[in-house]
Amino acid sequence: MNDTSLSLSERLAQHLLRPVPENVRTKARLHLVDWLGCVAGARHSAVGEVQHHMVQTAPLRAALLGNVLEMDDVHRAAILHPGPVVWPTVLGDADQGMAAVLDAAVRGYEATIIVGATFDAAHYAFWHNTTTAGVFGAAAAVGSLFGLDEAQLASALGLGGSVAGGLWQTRHEPQMAKQWHIAHALQTGGAAAWHAANGVTGPRYILEGPQGLYAATCEAPKPMVLGEGWRIDEVSFKPWGACRHAHPAIDAALALRARGTLDFPIAVETFADALAFCDRPEPTTVHEAKFSLQHAVAVVAVRGEPRLEDFEPDAIAALAEARSRVTVRADPMITSRYPDHFGATVIAGGDREALIDTLGDPERPLSRDGIIAKAGALMEWGGLDPAQIERGVTLALDSDDAEGVVGWLEEIL
Fold first, then answer.
1. Among 110, 118, 335, 410, which is most exposed with the fewest C-beta within 10 angstroms?
2. In CATH, which of 3.40.47.10, 3.30.70.260, 3.40.50.970, 3.30.1330.120 is domain 244-355?
3. In 10 A of CB 305, how many CB atoms?
4. Which whole-number Å values give the CA distances from 327 to 166, 173, 280, 333, 345, in the listed order?
5. pLDDT in tens, 211-237
6. Which residues contact 263 (CB under 8 A, 6 or more apart)?
7. Where do the DSSP E strands lie in 265-350?
8. How far apart are CA 140 and CA 12, in angstroms?
9. Separation between Cα atoms, residue 81 and residue 395, nearest integer Å
C-alpha cells in the first residue's frame, strides 16, 4: 500500500510493521556479533574507561563503545552506521526474547537507513547522519518491542524526529561527543516510543513539513524509498579499523601490494567526501590516524593488511616518512558514484588499481566465517579470553537467550 494522503512518517510506520522473515533474522545475528566485537574491542579505550564507572545498564554503557574503533557496520547510501544505535537499544528490553529483539533490530535498521538515505549532501556537511537518522531507528526498534500500532509508531517517529540532532563539530576536536551521540539517539528514540505508547502524540509531518527536519537541515532531500525487502541486507561490514571513507584506498593498495607494485610514491584518487573527512597527512592521535588516507595507505605499503595496532601512537610516529610520500586527490568520476559506491584508484610503481566497491560491501561481502573471525579478533584485542569470546559469539549467532547477551556485556564491561 502506498497511500499518498499519509505523511512520510505514517508511510514509514506502516512499512515497518511487516513481518520479519527468518532469513532476515539470521542476517541480523551477524550484525549483532559484529557489534559485540566492536564493543569488546573498545573496552580499554579512553571512552571505555569512562563508561566503566557509569552506573547504567550494560547496553547503555555498551552504546558508548560501538563506534570507538571505527569498525562498526555502515550503510553507504545513507552514510551512517546503524548497528551502534540499534543493538544497545533493543538489548535494553532483552527479557522479551531473542526473536522479538531480532525483529526490533531489523525494524530499527530499516527506519535508520530509510530516513538517512533521504538526507542530502547539505545535511551531511553539518549533521552526523547516524544520530539524526538513528533517533528514528531507536524509536522504531522500541516501538516494535512495545507492540505499537501504526498511529502510535508514527507518533514515536514524529516525537523522536522533532529533537533529532548531532553536529559534525565533534570530528574537529579531541573529545567523546561522537560516542555520546549514539547514547543520545537510543535514549531519545526509546523515550519517544515510550511516550507514544502512553498516548503522547507527535507531529505527522516531522520530515517534510514547512518547519520539519528537511526544511531545517537539507537543501534537496531525496525521495523516501520503501522497498519490498529489508535494508539490513544493504549494510556493509568493515574489515579494517579506519574510517570507511579510507577503506577503498586500503583495498586498492592491498591489491597493488599483492602484485608487488605498491612502491612509493603513491597517488590516491577517491571521492570528495573521503578527502573532507580523511585528508590528514600528519595525524597526531589514534583518532586522526583512523581518519587519514595517507596513514592508511602507508600502513599497507610498509606493513600489509591494517591491524588496530597500526593506528596506535608508535605506528603513527614510525610511518611519518612513508605518509609524506602518499598524495591524495578527489576524482570527479568516483565522486559521481558516491554514496551508492565507495571507490578509489591507487597508482604506484607504474601500476594502478581502480575499485568501485570495497571489501565488506554487499557486492563484495565478507563471509560468515570472516565476520566471526573479525569479531573474535576484536574481542581478543579487548582482552577477552577464549572462553569469553566463544560464549559471546555463540550467544549472538546460535542462542535464543537475549538476556544472556546482556549478561555477557555485564561481565565484560
1. 410
2. 3.30.1330.120
3. 12
4. 31, 24, 10, 18, 12
5. 999 999 999 999 999 999 999 999 999
6. 301, 348, 349
7. 266-270, 326-330, 344-348
8. 10
9. 23
